[in-house]
What we know:
Elements: H1 5-15, H2 18-41, E1 44-46, E2 54-56, H3 63-87, H4 89-95, H5 107-131, H6 139-153, H7 161-179, H8 182-192, H9 200-227, H10 229-234, H11 240-244, H12 246-272, H13 275-298, H14 302-332
Antiparallel strand pairs: 1-2
Helix pairs in contact: 2-3, 2-7, 2-9, 2-14, 3-5, 3-6, 5-6, 6-7, 7-9, 9-12, 9-14, 12-13, 13-14
Amino acid sequence: MKHSRGDNLKDLLTLVRLPNLLIVALTMMLMRYAVLRPLLSAMPVTLADNPLIVTRMTFQLGWFDFVVLVVSTVLITAAGYVINDYFDIRTDLINRGRIIVGNTITRRKAMMYHIILNVLGVTGGFYVSARIGYFWLGIFFLLVSGLLYFYSASYKRQFLIGNLIVAFLTAMVPMMVVLYDAPAIYAKYSSTALSFPGVAILFYWVGGFALFAFLTTLIREIIKDMEDYEGDLAMERKTLPVSGGMVTSRIVVVSLSLITLLALYTVWLRYLGDRTTLVLITLLITLPFVYVIYNVIAGKDKQMLHAASRMMKIIMLFGILYSLVAGALIISGKIF
């Protein structure tokens, strides 16, 4: 039975995980406009050539260059999803009973998509790096594309290494925004402002979101490994559930969940202290985590683990969307 072009496009969008790509783009836009812009506006500076006027710091990376940065990151991510399914055909057949690569999309075509997406993503990365005066920074995009390939081909089969790689790369998504704007901001205002507050606060704020992304992604990856236990065991993968057992995996997931919650409340207590954040952490993060922990501990089948994995995605989304609240609080002067 032949597939229509519409079906092929639908399979391709499924292959590259379109919703996840949209989350990547949303994360970067929120970090820039909901976090960095309010922070820059909240830090007045006096320029040496006009000492009588106090002005606000602004972005130094133009909007077009930022769009290229976002698109390049999305393309590299999409390439990673394609190569992941390319190497996971047999495992996905066992765990999910369905595949795209090797079925509606041939392995050869999947590899072609992988190469094209990587070339475009790396090229865009070098372009933006050149625009900020650090052409060598484009090597990061090249390294990430290679890391995603070797993750799919080898690292994900090794004990915890694959989980840590995915968590690290997810954490780098928000950090990319500040990494590509902070150097130019520092270069301009450190030489032209009479008193320059620095850019450390930008890294602190975005770093907080990055740490949350790292921990929640690591938790979700381990839960997914628990869900895929049968296929990974059949393929002799050394994931945490296969190597350490399901009980150990449950202990690790619960421990990481509690560490994440403790970190959130600690940050709130020491640096924020506002009632809005406390309510949101409790209702939108803590309660869903209770659901995740229950499903992981009591989960006797894939359905409960899959539900826990889905809830982790919702928790991650709530974490990203908190940037809108943070931006409003910064602008109001309540927490900065």
